[in-house]
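Annotators were shown the component list below and the corresponding predicted structure, then asked to write short factual statements about the assembly.
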Amino acid sequence: MSTIYILWLRQLKRHFRSKARLIGSLGQPLLFLLALGFGFGPIYQKAGGGDYIQFLAPGIIAMSILFTAMFSGIEIIWDRQFGFLKETLVAPISRFNIMLGRTLGGATVAVIQGLIVLIISLMVGFKLENLSLLPLLFVFMFLIAFLFTALGTAIASVLEDMQGFQLIMNFLVMPLFFLSGALFPIQVLPKALVTVATINPLAYGVDGLRAALMNGAYFGMPMDFLVLGSSAIILTIIGGYLFSKIQI
Amino acid sequence: MIKVEGLTKKFNDFTAVDNISFSVGKGEIFAFLGPNGAGKTTTIKILTTLLKPSRGKITINGYNPVEEPNNVRHSFGIVFQDPSLDDRLTAYENMEFHGVIYKISKDVRRSRIEQLLKFVELWERKNDLVDNFSGGMKRRLEIARGLLHHPKILFLDEPTLGLDPQTRSHIWAYIKDLNQKESITVFFTTHYIEEADRIADEVAIIDRGKIIIQGSPKELKEKNGTNSLEDAFIKMTSCDMRHEEVSNADRSRIRRRIFKH
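Structure shown to annotators:
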């Protein structure tokens, strides 16, 4: 337990000590929220979709969690390059606990980042519709955060350097984000893309956030919970396995 | 304390360590000397459970690194060739982190961290981020960290590489001191021959994955009829430059990177 705690604490300290990272990781969600929110808002309204900020905000919260979580997971590559990974690998502790501590730390950071975006959304006009669902919001935020930190960890365990990072951003993170229903409803997509979206765990994350924030679920909250929870467990097992196989 | 018999490590078709045997007694200072790419770091990685051997029998403090890695991990402290500190944490936090993952109780941890940071003369800088430390300070902090859990053996992989002469002699003074005060067994690799000559009780010269000769610095000099260990070393490893060997090793390393996963 104390091992998991100290690894968790380390992730938090690292994140909050880097002001550049703290601000940088808010820049993109903020830009999306403001530019898209105000840019497409009137069109969305005209088309009869209602208030676009109401629709968009949960998607942008999911986005900030996704990016921060993936980045935290992938940070293992840095630890490998700057040597710190070796310090944990020669210690008499189980590799699975190392992975778990890191993932919990990364997930916590991502949830905090998501909460900051939520507060910003509230400031630009987003309204919470059902306060009693707030605890569920935290559950979904945490599930998304944990799931994608574990995914980042799994990927980083098999990469040796940062060369593959752009590849992951462009061919994994961006598609996950764009095909999650964060920016537009999944229903409007062509059938083939809807199929892709239904196997995208982030789609269930966005749906879950939307359900908790404004009672508007596509898959339904129990389904969202089931998919996110089981994906998180599967990825933790895969990530834990790949991490335990790291040789330096 | 360390016993190695017939240790071999292959990376695909490249044999990094080729059937080596040696043993290090308690309280001894053992130097592993060899040119670049000779197999020094690979050997240390195997002894410290970071790599699995292809063949051979190893005992560290009575434990087998493959079967009982955690017992082995409790037995040694290590200073790696490249820094392995978290530079976004302070010196104290790095020590604290180490103490927690080695499950040292809070009271013992506190007093031991203070004792060791004072020993390497970093107590005044304990709350500074490691990022602001010089190379020598980082190395000193790593030595202190490696000692925190009272290891029986201290592994040092090129501990003085890239440091200025003053810092180097400083670091060896600490290590000698430790060896005498806490009777820690020290296993270090180096290609600074004069360091091995001055510090070590026992030296093994390794080249192309094989141990060519082993003995006290004095014996090695006598055997080769040379005055300095350097002459003995060059005589043993032959005086040609190491272009061919190094590039072969590098090629294999690249191949390993590509096909590893």
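Statements collected:
1. The longest helix of chain B spans residues 165-181.
2. The interface with chain A takes residues 45, 48-52, 69-71, 73-74, 78, 80, 82-89, 93, 96-98, 100-103, 145, 257, 260-261 of chain B (CB under 8 Å).
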